[in-house]
Amino acid sequence: MAKAANLGFPRIGARRELKTAVEAHWKGNLSADDLAAEGARLRAAHWQLQRDAGIEVIPSNDFSFYDHVLDMTAVLGAVPRRFGPVGDHVAPTQYFAMARGTAEAPAMEMTKWFDTNYHYIVPEFEEGQSFRLASLKPIEDFLEAKALGIHTRPVLVGPVTWLSLGKTKAEGLDPLTLLSAILPIYSDVLRRLAEAGADWVQIDEPVLVTDLSDGQRRALSTAYAELATAGPRLMLASYFGSLDDNLDLALSLPVAGLHLDLIRAPEQIKRVLEAGPDKVLSLGLIDGRNVWRADLARALDAAQTAARLHGTGRIQIAPSCSLLHVPVDLDAEAGLDAELKGWLSFARQKLAEVATLTRALNDGQVAVADALAANAALVASRASSSRIHDPKVKSRSASVGPDDLRRRSHYQVRQRAQAAQLNLPVFPTTTIGSFPQTAEVRRARADHRKGRISAADYDAFLKRETESCIRRQEALGLDMLVHGEFERNDMVEYFGEQLAGYAFTRFGWVQSYGSRCVKPPLIFGDVSRPQPMTVEWSGYAQSLTDRPVKGMLTGPVTILQWSFVRDDQPRSETCKQIALAIRDEVADLEAAGIKAIQIDEPAIREGLPLRRADWDGYLQWAVDCFRLSASPVRDETQIHTHMCYSEFNDIMPAIARMDADVISIETSRSDMELLTAFGDFEYPNEIGPGVWDIHSPRVPPQEDMITLLRKAASVIASERLWVNPDCGLKTRDWAETEASLKNLVAAAKALRKGDLTPLPVEGGRHSDTACACEEMTG
Ligand SMILES: CN1c2c(nc(N)[nH]c2=O)NC[C@@H]1CNc1ccc(C(=O)N[C@@H](CCC(=O)N[C@@H](CCC(=O)N[C@@H](CCC(=O)O)C(=O)O)C(=O)O)C(=O)O)cc1
Ligand SMILES: N[C@@H](CCS)C(=O)O
Ligand SMILES: [Zn+2]
Fold first, then answer.
1. Which among 49, 216, 333, 475 has the fewest CB atoms less than 10 Å away?
2. Helix (H) or strand (E) holding 37
3. What was the pLDDT predicted at 764?
């Protein structure tokens, strides 16, 4: 008989209970014991929910108080020295210190988990790195479930993925050379799990869907030759793409099971079945990365072929990857209309889909005839719905030509026109858009949503916040102002709420990092802009001041990347539709007298496909979409963009092709080292290298910023330099914001009349940390 399996369940809780508990603990309002109890309550509820849904292979150790990669780091005792010695086990204070930092020890880096919007804590390898078993969480969680009468399959991040995601702080240390040191600990954990009663363990090796080096291939062979003998049978999980050229390697590993992502790469099952491996195959047939109801007939077809060729008893049916990346329960969404709701499926519903498919395979379609018929009707209703298709949007998108992607004149011509219109000093100062989203701002929004304050009162509140923000910026002496983004819950959700073709949820939270969540809006149809989205706020802010106010938009690629997207047309087409909507907003902002418009694209690099061979195709349409959104304006109107993810070296030509008049980037942490990519490439337009690391509550002194700017001037001509923070200020408070901006303006003024001697950029810490808009300490 085939088995219904799951690879991981969202840990945050349907009402973000984990966030509430963890943040209360950080504030000192919940003891470590009470936090542990809340964790246990959530785990028990989630295991029970999965069992009730008909899942037979239920994961454990997928739960985490912060991040599962950090949990593996704790298991291996890889605690960087600055967090103190590793005792018998990594205690909660040490664990959270690693994630969030302390006054003495900066947090470990955080970056994106493959091509998702989930962030993991980057393992760090130091000089003389040693390891020891320092957390028994995988075993404890297994036993906890066992005590509840639930037999689980523990999940571990695999050794090659864990090492490959890590960063070495020791000159010349290749992380893969540490494999032999960590394998005994993995073996120990597996042995202990076997003793505790685990018969299977899921080992996640998503690196298997990336371009592997020879070293990684060797490491995989070495690792699994050793781990396969440790006790439990291993289900090696690949996901987020195709095994492709790594398929033979994966099949050669002596593991008992192999999980395949058949949503991202349905074609790979054919080659696997032809090879006839001596393994249990876990078929990832239900989309773990998106929220659409599965087409069960199609999935069943694939499952039946596999069962016929491989044997039903050696098949598991599963989501394509962990369900960490989708919201918990569609049933909570009372506000969604019935038709749309019928097209959707969140984590709980996806488990039901897995169970239905498995029963259909085992007992025949008649056993689940009603469920299959209902599914077929809903899938058909979505495919034929007139709500999805807007002929006007389609024909406008089809008529986009090369001229729509071009500004009217070359940058040098635009630059002169903009200088004449804006009349800014050298080293102009600005910020990236958002100002502190205080508890008061969030509360006012919640009050408005819950009907406790009227729309008029909410609007008046936001106008007061905006005016106060403008006055503060004037008093600080900033040259180009922003309205502050107080009206936004999130830089993507806010636009999703206003665009046609989009729906949004009330409780569709997905963990982004630690206790922080996002609520991605969902694109179900052709996207268009029924009315202006930001013009009122930018126009109001501009009416309050003589200084230029920068309009503030999120770019098409970032809106696409941070939404749940349609699966019935290419992402490039959806992105083009969003770009046209943003283009209209850009044109309206200009018509309303806005002289500079920033189109944020922090996710453009994150959207890069996992395989390098696919990069050029993606960058072509992604950059085209940015250009489409940015190009309706006159030469005088200055287009800014902002990116707070680093590592520009390998995509410099694409960044240059975006042709933004000004780009602001995150650089302060790397001591301007990241700027060298722009210097080496001879990037021609203006640049604002961030001089204030807004990750940190530290107020940077004026001298530090001057030093950074002098370093920047050694790479980029000073007349093309802007002075700004690394990213938006929404996670900071007003006191540190005003103190830091005071120093930033003073630094720019000092440079205007003072020492411009360039300072060389040295090999600063190279950073590709996550977006600076994340509060590392949050
Ligand atoms: C830049 N980043 C972003 C990413 N993706 C996005 N979609 N958006 C991003 O900005 N990916 C990469 C990074 C990830 N970084 C972050 C940074 C910060 C957060 C964060 O703070 N998340 C908040 C939720 C933000 C939000 O949506 N707020 C809403 C709702 C607030 C709320 O919970 N209200 C309560 C009541 C509150 C009260 O009464 O006081 C309620 O509704 O019940 C809003 O402001 O209206 C978080 O809390 O986790 C995320 C990613
Ligand atoms: N304008 C946005 C960009 C964040 S990446 C902000 O300032 O928050
Ligand atoms: Zn940013």
1. 475
2. helix 32-52
3. 39
Q: What residues contact residue 28 under an 8 Å CB cut-off, 6+ apart?
A: none
**What pLDDT digit, counting tens, does each position of 379-429 carry?**
999 999 999 999 999 999 999 999 999 999 999 999 999 999 999 999 999
Which is more confident, 667 or 93?
93
> Does residue 494 have its Cβ closer than 6 Å to ligand 1?
no
Distance of CA 566 to the CA centre of its chain: 18
Distance CA 503, CA 565 (A): 11
User: Could you identify the atom of ligand 1 that is nearest to the CA of residue 19?
Assistant: 49
- Contact between 42 and 344 (Cβ < 8 Å): no
- Look at residue 770 and tell me whether its pLDDT is greater than 60: no
Q: Cα separation of 664 and 429, whole Å? A: 11
**Is 506:334 a contact under the CB 8 Å cutoff?**
yes
pTM of the model: 0.95
Which own/partner pairs from 611-616 qualify as long-range (CB within 8 Å, at least 24 positions apart)?
611/209, 611/210, 611/211, 611/241, 611/244, 612/211, 613/211, 615/651
Contact (CB, 8 A) for 535 and 415: no
For the chain, domains (ranges, CATH) are 3-59+136-384 (3.20.20.210), 413-499+535-753 (3.20.20.210)
State the DSSP string of 300-345: HHHHHHHHHHH-GGGEEEEESS-GGGS-S-GGG-TTS-HHHHHTB-
For CA atoms 177, 178, 181, 183, the dihedral sign is: negative
CA distance 656 to 398: 26
Q: Give me the percent of the chain exceeding a pLDDT of 70.
A: 97
Sign of the CA dihedral 205, 208, 209, 214?
A: positive
Return the ligand 1 atom nearest residue 117 CA: 11
Bind-site residues for L-homocysteine: 432-434, 485, 600
